[in-house]
Amino acid sequence: MMKRVSLSITEHTLTLSVLSYVIDQMDRGRFGDLLSYLEPEELDELRMMPIRDLLGITSQGREIIHITIDTQQLRGCMFRLRNRSEDESDQLWFVRRGAHRFMMTELFGTTERQFRELRRLAGATDRGRPIAPEKTITETIQQAWVKFDPSLSVAERYRLLGDVFPDLPIGALYSAINEL
Q1: Phi/psi at 79 (nearest 5 deg)?
Q2: Residue 171 neighbours by CB under 8 Å, 6+ apart
Q3: What one-character-per-residue DSSP string does the chain give?
Q4: Do 157 and 103 meet the contact criterion of CB atoms below 8 Å apart?
Q5: Cα–Cα distance between 126 and 146 in angstroms, integer?
Q6: 51-62 burial, b for 16+ CB within 10 Å, e for fewer?
Q7: Which residues contact 66 (CB under 8 A, 6 or more apart)?
Q8: What string of pLDDT tens digits covers the 180 residues of the chain?
Q9: d(CA 91, CA 98)
Q10: What's the pTM?
Q11: Of 96, 103, 100, 101, whose CA–CA distance to 124 is shortest?
């Protein structure tokens, strides 16, 4: 069920900001219907009004602006932001652990530009491909991999693998798994 919560704004500095924003948007051809109940002369007067007169309108404490908050949309936006933050945290963990671009693209759909930004955020300085582990270590890595629950996402399994082999870069683990 969609619930909208309305509140009236009487704080004159906030009213002035919103009113100025609406006037600016009208001049750009947006919000045409927002003030459509005003006569064209009134709109022109509002556009041309000096700031001190706008302050005089807004300082009267009258409720001329009302804001509606769509709580369902707000919750949805908050949910998406939380998920994006969690995804970014996961991605940063992988980059800090030495994941290369191809791995990040496969796991998260990361573009080259996003990968460079993640490396910058993570403070990563290593360059080039990680050295592939020796054959015996590769076999140990592969044995650990097949023991993980296949219902887990590939990224979750790599994260577990990174916990099992904390001294190896995640890119090296990736190359060992790709040999399977």
Answers
A1: -60, -45
A2: 98, 99, 100, 103, 129, 130
A3: ---EEEEEE--HHHHHHHHHHHHHHHHTT--TTTTTTS-HHHHHHHHH--HHHHHHHHTT----EEEEEEHHHHHHHHHHHHHHHHHHHHHHHHHHTT--HHHHHHHH---HHHHHHHHHHHT----SPPPPPPHHHHHHHHHHHHHS-TTS-HHHHHHHHHHHSTTS-HHHHHHHHHT-
A4: no
A5: 29
A6: eeebeeebeeee
A7: 6, 7, 8, 9
A8: 556 666 666 676 777 787 788 777 777 777 666 666 777 788 788 888 888 888 888 778 777 777 777 888 888 778 877 777 778 888 999 999 999 999 999 999 999 999 999 998 888 888 777 778 899 999 999 999 999 999 999 999 999 999 999 999 999 999 999 887
A9: 11
A10: 0.55
A11: 96
Residue among 81, 126, 79 nearest 99 (CA): 126
Q: How far is CA 30 from CA 64, 153, 160, 169, in A?
A: 20, 45, 51, 52
CA distance 36 to 71: 27
How many residues would you count in the chain?
Answer: 180
